[in-house]
C-alpha cells in the first residue's frame, strides 16, 4: 500500500474513534476526547507499529496480533485509555506492556518522559527500533516484569497498563505519585473492567470502572 492509501485509512480511523466516543458518552461522561489526544493519534502512524504483513489492516478499529500471543490494542481503546490518563506536558509516564511501541509513541507526543516495560525481549527490541525511527527520543524501554514497575525511575505522574492482571499490582499503586492517575484493565479473563485509579494528595486511592474490556493477561513471571 502507498503512503496516500495509509493517510486516507488513518483519517477514517480518527473519524471512527470520534463517532464511537459519542456512543460511549454514558461511560466516559463526555462526547469528545481531548484535543491533544486526537492530535497525537493523528500524528503517529499506526501502520509502522504492526507486523508488515498486517499493515493493510493497521487502521481498522480492531486489535491485531504482534506475535508471542500478544496484540496491539484496538485504536478506540488506545484513544480512551490515553484520554483517561490526562497526560500533561510535564508528566513522567510509566507504561506496562510496550508491545511494538504504538501506545508508547502516542504517549511520547503528550508527556515529558515515558518509561515502558516489556516482558518479551524480542518485542522490546523491535519496539526500540520502531520508536527510534519515529524520533521518539523521550521513550525508554526495558525488559522486565511489569508487575514490579520501575522502582529506579519512580514515582510516576501517570501509569498505563496494557495487559490485565486479576488485581492491581501493589507496586504500581506505590509508584504512583500523590495526585496521579492510573488506567489499567483488571479482573478475570471473562470479566475484565477498564479501571481509572486515582491517588489523592494524601495518598488515598479511589477506583472507577469505565467499561468491560478484553486484554491479554499481565504475566507475573515470579508468581508461579
TrEMBL record:
One of its GO terms (biological process) is methylation. Its EC number is 2.1.1.77. It holds the Pfam family PCMT. The keyword Cytoplasm applies. SUPFAM superfamilies: S-adenosyl-L-methionine-dependent methyltransferases. It comes from the Bacteria. It is found in: Cytoplasm. Keywords: Cytoplasm, Methyltransferase, S-adenosyl-L-methionine, Transferase. This is Protein-L-isoaspartate O-methyltransferase. The lineage of its organism: Bacteria, Pseudomonadati, Pseudomonadota, Betaproteobacteria, Burkholderiales.
Amino acid at each position: 500500500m502507498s503512503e496516500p492509501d495509509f493517510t486516507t485509512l488513518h483519517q477514517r480511523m480518527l473519524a471512527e474513534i470520534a463517532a464511537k466516543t459519542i456512543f460511549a458518552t454514558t461511560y466516559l461522561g463526555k462526547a469528545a476526547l481531548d484535543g491533544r489526544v486526537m492530535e497525537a493519534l493523528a500524528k503517529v502512524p499506526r501502520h509502522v507499529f504492526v507486523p508488515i504483513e498486517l499493515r493493510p489492516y493497521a487502521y481498522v478499529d480492531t486489535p491485531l496480533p504482534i506475535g508471542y500471543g500478544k496484540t496491539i490494542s484496538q485504536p478506540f481503546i488506545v484513544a480512551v485509555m490515553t484520554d483517561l490518563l490526562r497526560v500533561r506536558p510535564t508528566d513522567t509516564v510509566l507504561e506496562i506492556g510496550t508491545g511494538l511501541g504504538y501506545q508508547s509513541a502516542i504517549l511520547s507526543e503528550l508527556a515529558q518522559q515515558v518509561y515502558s516495560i516489556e516482558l518479551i525481549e524480542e518485542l522490546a527490541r523491535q519496539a526500540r527500533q520502531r520508536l527510534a525511527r519515529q524520533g521518539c527520543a523521550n521513550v525508554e524501554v526495558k525488559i522486565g516484569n511489569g508487575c514490579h514497575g520501575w522502582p529506579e525511575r519512580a514515582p510516576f505522574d501517570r501509569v498505563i497498563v496494557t495487559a490485565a492482571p486479576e488485581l492491581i499490582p501493589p507496586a504500581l499503586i506505590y509508584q504512583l505519585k500523590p495526585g496521579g492517575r492510573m488506567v489499567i484493565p483488571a479482573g478475570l479473563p471473562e470479566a475484565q473492567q477498564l479501571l481509572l485509579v486515582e491517588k489523592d494528595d494524601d495518598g488515598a486511592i479511589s477506583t472507577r470502572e469505565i467499561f468491560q474490556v478484553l486484554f491479554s493477561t499481565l504475566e507475573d513471571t515470579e508468581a508461579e
